[in-house]
Design goal:
By secondary structure, the chain is an all-alpha fold. It is built from 14 helices and no strands.
Length: 332
Amino acid sequence: MPSMQHSWSMPDAAGLATAAAMPIGRPSVGSAQSTIGRHFLIALGFSMLLLAALMHAAQLRIDPFLPSNRPFYAVFMAAAALRFGLPRTRWRHALPVAHFSLYVGLFMLISLMGAAASYPVAALTHGYADPLLQRIDEALGFDWLAWYRLAADSPTLQFAGTVAYRSIYVTPALLLWNFARAGHYDRAWRFMASFWLAAVITLILFSLMPAVGPFSYLWHEPIRYMPESELWQSGLIPALRAHSVHIVDLGQLRGIVSAPSFHTAAAMLYIVAGWHMAALRWPIVALNAAMLLSTPVEGTHYLIDMILGVGVALTALALIRAYVAMLDRRTA
């Protein structure tokens, strides 16, 4: 069994938490804000260790020298330089930009870890849940094939759906910048913690109900339109289970989680996080409503996948809210 190689060095969780969670402005020592940031970063460090264990168990590794990793290295290095360098300057925008740089780096790390973890999780699964998921959709009266044919017949819907589906990385940038600019650091930490926890819950449920998705399961005619998620599940999951894939390329990660729909979970988290931003509330609602409408086809998801995604988001939000309330009581 090959040894695990990482595209990042495994940090000491406590050291990472102390360095990154240190407030850049005026800290509120012992506050719930600084505590949740510190606890979140410790949890993120343990997540990296768990990812390493999963990769080892699935006979997978990450090659840190692949050229496709270089853009991520560049972003992480730039984020670190801005995070620690800007507070030493007198630039009037140094504080929000420094916070935003930290948030962007952490959000990218969460996204990469979640996507990479889906590979070993898939490799350790058995069977497929598609027959059950399709039966539930039929009971709900949802016809995935009708949605696909509608998109396949309309280049306008194809373009709009692709743009909306890819916006999953646009909205968090807007949210995190507004948190940093307004000094709402506590909201930024809660948002990132909720996103991380939603990813963890999604991967746990994915291990219990792996699926190839409705495109592979239901469509048996010549392909009229290739959605954004393509047909990766039907080819990649069996290859991972057979251990014929050994390298996880961070620059070529493919979405292989069907149930629950993480795009749906993310859309719910984005809408909740942006609801208190007067200038962004309705643009964020509209953008993520469009992403939800595009998800069945572009993400090749059953309707029940999306319902489960809503449940994942609500669970993550409730758990983070309860945790913050506990910290507030302790601080008080």
